[in-house]
Amino acid sequence: MKARRYTRYSTDIPFTLGIEGMIGKHQYFLKDAGQGGLCFDALGCIDRGTHLHISFPLLKKPYNANAKIAWCNPLSIDYCSLGIVFEESVTQSVIEKIALSH
After folding, report:
1. Residue 7: its pLDDT value, please?
2. Residue 101 to residues 10, 23, 29, 63, 66: CA-CA distances in angstroms?
């Protein structure tokens, strides 16, 4: 078993996700967060490498980032667990604000 490079925080904070090339945004809830990225469950899968814009509007100072889908694992016929990797460097303090915000 490979050790994680970054600390992961379990959380259920809501975030919005916009998919490159598609109109509109969708709201999801995180499962966990770390400097390496985020994990959430969704109805349907999103192709690996798809570029995204994510935002956390409920933080005292809203946080926005560009990211992409790192992996997608089916959970059932309808649901998938998805991993997001940030396209920019994200500090540990930002991750802690996201994960520990409520």
Report:
1. 74
2. 11, 28, 13, 12, 20
